[in-house]
Amino acid sequence: MEIQFLGAAGAVTGSCYLIRAGGNTILLECGQIQGSRREERANRESLPVPMDEIDAVVLSHAHIDHSGRLPLLVKHGYTGPIYTHSATRALCDIMLRDSAYIHEKDAEWENKRRQRKGLEPIEPLFERDDAEVAVSQFVGMGYGERQEILPKLFIRFNDAGHILGAAIVEIWLSEGGVDRKLVFSGDLGYRDAPIMEDPTRIDRADLVLMESTYGDRLHRSFADTLDELGEVFEQASRHKGNVIIPAFAVGRTQDLLYLLAEHQERWKLDGWRVFLDSPMAIQATDVYAQFRNLYGAKLFRDRSDTPQLRNFAATMTSEESMAVNRIDSGAVIIAGSGMCTGGRVLHHLKHNLWRSQCHVVIVGYQAMGTLGRRLVDGADYVRLWGQTIRVNAKIHTIGGLSAHADQAGLLEWYAGFDNRPPVCLVHGERDAQHALAARLHEDHGAEVMLPELGETRQL
């Protein structure tokens, strides 16, 4: 039994792990690499295994850094099942189509540039037809269902508390009369999150693949985070500007809508208009309404799929989005992408970054090489569509709204294992992983490994 690390080894995006046992080969995750254009070129590299050798794919959740290369897998000939939670299937139906559209548009723009230089055109990474076929191969499951997906290979999904449908994956493998259990944390949420349930505790494993995104830091307390958001709105009100919130369409957006409704009076938001300017986030919020049985928070009005928030508008069309761009003050604009790598938020940044009365609120992880990371790191100027934009707006980083567990949350989750299994840290930058590895060893005596990209380890 062996596992090969094909992505998110010493990095946060591009999760992908190949598992071989008992004559079976499964792919755990097939995520897109996100970051600079140079880093994203790696998405076009072929997986080191023929498509007809992959017997099944298992997907923990819908975020593109975990699911985003599934249409590429299908494009290259994979025809087998993709096992995931039913809510994840519904979300991927939206997100993968949207991702395909972006790849098509990027290729169209690049080919115009290449044509002027006399260069050969390129193909999109994948197209919407590929995304549709990929989603048709999804097999939806529920939490807590142990299912045999291949001979002597069982899986079970457990609530990871990260986003809707996100799962901790248990995988039971048999080979040569030996049984082993692999547990993949997926992306772990944190306890007492605004909407999602707490991550499920697992008591035994032979090996744990564990995310480490925030393995080197602690989030601010949630009470402090709410105070910090209130201060942002108070400042923005005095400055008579807009508040731009780049947000992931799935998870962060719904948390924000809930919190804005819950604290509308406290934060004096009655004078503000709140715009959800992301077609994908609007559709994802509809999926949250469809699967509201999976979480306890009251995100929606009674017997309605409309968020509770007053003065709220969901802007689906380009014309509605452009109208929002013409608002000078009093607008809270939630738009994707969450790392400012594309989407409508770039237009809102173009219209607001240079204005000192405006505020930009960063509420999620920003990978190296992204525009969001440059803003967090204090860039004085950024480039948008070939134009240099001065950063005069106030940039706020609200770490307490992350959908990922911090170091304390990761340690608490690992403490649930009675047998203290060895750990491979994935989905984290090296500094975060070294810090978390030290704490896992000191606090729990865990054997911790930091796999390299392409490395194979025996289970």
Structure commentary:
The chain is of the alpha/beta class. It folds into two domains: 2-217 and 403-458, Metallo-beta-lactamase, Chain A; 222-401, Rossmann fold (3-Layer(aba) Sandwich), CATH 3.40.50.10890. 31% of the residues lie in helices and 22% in strands. The radius of gyration is 22 Å and the shape is globular. The mean pLDDT is 94.
State the main characteristics.
single chain, 459 residues, alpha/beta, Metallo-beta-lactamase, Chain A, Rossmann fold, 2 domains, seven-stranded mixed β-sheet, 13 helices, 31% helix
State mean pLDDT (0 to 100 scale).
94
> Would you count the extended β strands for me?
22
The CATH C-level name of the largest domain is Alpha Beta
Q: Helical content, roughly? A: 25-40%
Count of helical stretches: 13
Shape: globular
Layout of SSEs?
Layout: E1 2-7, E2 16-21, E3 24-28, H1 37-40, E4 56-58, H2 64-67, H3 70-75, E5 82-85, H4 86-116, H5 128-136, E6 138-141, E7 147-150, E8 153-159, E9 167-175, E10 178-184, E11 207-211, H6 222-239, E12 243-246, H7 252-262, E13 273-276, H8 279-290, E14 312-314, H9 318-325, E15 331-335, H10 345-352, E16 359-362, H11 371-376, E17 381-384, E18 387-390, E19 394-397, H12 407-414, E20 423-426, H13 430-444, E21 448-449, E22 456-458
Parallel strand pairs: 3-4, 4-5, 5-6, 10-11, 11-20, 12-15, 12-16, 13-14, 13-15, 16-19, 20-21
Antiparallel strand pairs: 1-2, 1-22, 2-3, 7-8, 8-9, 9-10, 17-18
Helix pairs in contact: 4-5, 4-8, 12-13
